[in-house]
TrEMBL record:
Protein name: NADP-dependent oxidoreductase
SMART domains, per database record: PKS_ER (SM00829)
Domain Enoyl reductase (ER): 10-293
A Pfam family reported for this protein in Swiss-Prot or TrEMBL: ADH_N
Coiled-coil annotated residue ranges, if any: none
InterPro entries (UniProt xref): ADH-like_N, ER, GroES-like_sf, Lipid_raft_assoc_Zn_ADH, NAD(P)-bd_dom_sf
Signal peptide start-end: none
SUPFAM superfamilies: GroES-like, NAD(P)-binding Rossmann-fold domains
């Protein structure tokens, strides 16, 4: 099969599409024939060496939508099942940017029935990150939340999920994205935000200390880069999500997609052979929605 990998760190040109042996699923694993796989900023980080692995072949891609092709023992999945999954891991020989991907069976959920595979592939990593970050904040109905980067992939899902829970959500985004932020159930931030004005902040834009100022004394802050949150201050509890594969939780998010409660956005598609071009497009910035590779 073909797979997108990096064998030396650098810019988009360092992404190679190579021939690799077809991976075999082990116990409690499934092999998925990839229909679509989203490209995320974490892939750019892997490509540039932010997570280590020098001297190794590193596979790219965390999100996958496709069809179960083979299973190991002790799984409830069957060949032909249409699924989505999160293939977690910074430094791995193969990822989901390939023709086939092997993932743990408990990372898998049935795919949405109301969208195509390209859109479904934008769900796992970003929606699970948003949901698990909200868990860290422990917000009750009626509390106030500021989401930074509310027009981005993680921020958009976080705004929709929090609003659905009855949280009063304010979304910080560019002026051009105000209408989109409203469509998520959030109020676009207007003017200078008040210091201490919110019960919690979900900092999808990675503003750090600046975002911490907007949390009230004794509130909560959740970041999206593991172990990179600002130090606690004024009694504000700070944390950062380290996303975990969770098929059961992913199934809940799929249900919300099929109910029309979560918005999936695709910025464009590229053939797997054009993975380097897709990385260049991501690096150019200004992307709204996810770029998706289609083998």
């Amino acid at each position: 099969m073909r797979a997108a990998v990096v064998r030396s760190f650098g810019g988009p040109e360092s992404v190679e599409v190579v021939e690799s042996e077809l991976p075999e699923p082990g116990a409690r694993q499934v092999r998925i024939k990839v229909a679509a796989a989203a490209l995320n900023p974490v892939d750019a980080g892997v490509r540039t060496g932010a997570f280590g692995g020098a001297g190794k072949q590193i596979g790219l891609g965390w999100d996958v939508a496709g069809t179960v092709d083979a299973t190991g023992v002790a799984t409830a999945w069957s060949p032909g099942d249409r699924v989505v999954a999160l293939d977690h891991g910074m430094v791995k020989a193969l990822g989901t940017h390939a023709e086939y991907a092997v993932v743990d069976a408990d990372a898998v959920a049935l795919a949405p029935t109301t969208v195509d595979a390209v859109h479904a592939a934008t769900l796992p990593l970003n929606a699970l990150t948003a949901a698990q970050a909200l868990d860290l904040l422990e917000l009750e109905e009626g509390r106030s939340l500021l989401v930074t980067g509310a027009a981005g992939a993680v921020g958009g899902f976080a705004a929709e999920l929090a609003a659905r829970r009855g949280v009063a959500v304010t979304g910080l985004a560019r002026a051009a994205d105000e209408e989109f932020v409203r469509s998520l159930g959030a109020t676009p931030a207007a003017g200078e935000l008040p210091a201490g004005g919110f019960d919690a902040v979900l900092d999808a834009a990675v503003l750090g200390e600046r975002a911490l100022r907007w949390v009230r004394d004794g509130g909560a802050y959740a970041g999206v880069i593991p172990q990179a949150q600002p130090a606690p201050a004024r009694g504000v509890r700070t944390s950062a999500v380290e996303v975990a594969a969770d098929g059961a939780r992913l199934a809940e998010l799929v249900r919300l997609v099929d109910e029309g409660a979560l918005t999936l956005r695709v910025a464009g598609t590229y053939a797997l052979d054009d993975a380097a071009e897709a990385h260049a497009r991501l690096a150019a910035g200004g992307v709204r929605g996810r770029i998706v590779l289609v083998p």
